[in-house]
Specification:
The chain has 483 residues and is mostly helical. It contains 17 helices and no strands. The relative contact order is 0.15.
């Protein structure tokens, strides 16, 4: 990629942020619309879970393929394809005649979305080459999540209340069209000098692992954990995981290069990403149902209630990027775990939903914590990685986020369904939701612990050693292991 002027780099950053905006906006808008969709489509708890997880599962399954394909064929080319498919999928979702078709069209959206975030992050990584400038750019990138979280519930509430839930998908179409135009005009093409080959077997194993695991968690409350259907899914997940761990190291150019995980910061950042985004997905799922089904608020009022959390995320994400650039990722990660944990404990142990003041406090605490966590995740995952592997490394980090969201919705939804159910009101819903809040608090504790462990000198030394493994290679991959 040629060296760009400062102004051109900022334009490229803005375009990449637009792609993140429509993907993130889609998730927050959809959460506000869940009760309306449940009523109109006659959806169960698992049906609502699948409208979210069908998207995140396909996204998680294809992100690494999209990252490596972009490194090979051209990042701008794949980015443009992603914008077009995502926009078309959004339009199809607005026309879905029933729940089953909506789930299918959400999967089409996800195919496009898989070409956006990791590829955009790779473009940013190769555009902003100076570490401090890159950390600040990633902070702005993380701030867009906060903007989408702040705008999504309000926009979604307005659209659902005045037009209907189908209109929430219309928002993506004009933004996607504008992003396509700007990308053609301002984003230069770039490729990795040593891109890797496609790994179809690894890709199928990843799909089997994520799909069977999520299906088992979502459907278990209704089918029963001991049912043949769920046991088969768990068995498929275990076999897929074992096969993936055995097959990938033998490939010269694997889909998931397990040597990435020799880096403690990279491994820790991906586990933190799973925990953080599982917490976010669970938080949004529980509170959307609580505000509308228990408190009886309209979609718009429920969206307005989410502004304190989303607003703090938007404010803290750029601050986190600056902290990472000036002091490293340790402090933001520790603070993120502490604030998110305080929010979870407030709801789980002190009945945070009992009063308006406690509810507001819990939302603010969670927003601060989540706003601080995104920039250090990305920075830590990419630290020490050679730029030639930026697309794949960023895709793995993005995959961890989507896996976290899928598991968050699956686990929290299963907890609610196993308790009083999503349609319960009052004390029944609060009692069913208390274990969910303890799960969120546990995820925050893991963020706090891993933030301390993965940012020490020993951990950074493993990142440098991992980078040397790739820099020593004469070509893009590594020789297969001997049998």
């Amino acid at each position: 990629m040629p060296e760009l002027s400062h102004r051109r780099r900022l334009v490229v950053l803005a375009i990449c942020c637009m792609s993140l905006l429509i993907v993130s906006l889609d998730n927050t808008v959809l959460n506000v619309a869940l009760p309306s969709m449940q009523h109109e489509l006659g959806a169960s708890v698992s049906g609502m879970q699948w409208t979210i997880d069908a998207y995140t599962l396909v996204l998680a399954s294809l992100l690494m393929l999209a990252g490596s394909t972009a490194d090979r064929l051209g990042r701008r080319r794949i980015f443009l394809a992603g914008l077009a498919v995502f926009s078309a999928g959004s339009l199809l979702c607005s026309l879905a005649p029933g729940l089953e078709w909506l789930v299918v069209f959400r999967m089409v959206q996800a195919v496009g979305g898989s070409m956006l975030n990791p590829v955009a992050m790779s473009i940013i990584t190769n555009t902003f080459t100076e570490p401090r400038e890159r950390a600040r750019a990633i902070g702005v990138w993380g701030g867009v999540v906060g903007i989408s979280m702040a705008a999504g519930p309000v926009i979604g509430g307005l659209l659902v209340q005045n037009v209907g839930w189908r209109s929430i998908f219309w928002v993506n179409v004009p933004i996607g069209a504008l992003a396509v135009f700007l990308t053609l005009r301002y984003v230069p093409e770039s490729r990795a000098p040593r891109p890797r080959r496609v790994d179809p077997v690894g890709q199928l194993l990843v799909i089997a692992l994520l799909g069977s695991l999520t299906y088992a968690i979502i459907e278990a409350p209704e089918a029963g954990w001991a049912s043949a259907e769920i046991l088969v899914c768990v068995l498929v997940a275990l076999i897929s995981l074992a096969a993936l761990a055995g097959y990938e190291p033998r490939r010269r150019e694997p889909l998931i290069d397990l040597r990435f995980f020799h880096s403690v910061p990279f491994t820790g950042a991906n586990i933190i990403a799973v925990c953080a985004f599982a917490s976010l997905a669970g938080f949004l799922f529980v509170n959307t149902l609580y505000l509308q089904n228990v408190r009886g608020l309209s979609a718009l009022d429920a969206g307005l209630w989410m502004i304190p959390m989303a607003g703090m995320t938007g404010l803290c994400a750029p601050l986190s990027g600056r902290l990472v650039g000036s002091r490293g990722p340790r402090l933001p990660l520790l603070l993120a775990g502490a604030f998110m944990g305080a929010s979870g404990v407030l709801f789980a142990a002190f009945d945070g939903q009992a009063t308006t003041a406690l509810l507001f406090t819990g939302y603010v605490l969670f927003g601060i914590g989540f706003g601080l966590v995104n920039a250090p995740i990305t920075n830590t995952a990419l630290s020490g990685m050679p730029r030639t592997q930026a697309g794949v490394a960023a895709a793995v980090a993005s995959t961890s986020r989507q896996v976290g969201q899928s598991l968050g919705v699956a686990v929290i939804g299963a907890v609610l369904a196993g308790g009083a159910g999503a349609g319960a009101t009052g004390a029944e819903f609060l009692a069913a939701g208390r274990p969910a809040w303890w799960i969120i608090a546990g995820c925050a504790a893991a963020i706090l612990l891993l933030g301390a462990l993965t940012t020490g000198r020993w951990a950074q030394a493993t990142a440098r050693q991992t980078a040397e493994l790739f820099e020593e290679e004469p070509r893009g991959g590594h020789a297969p292991a001997k049998a």
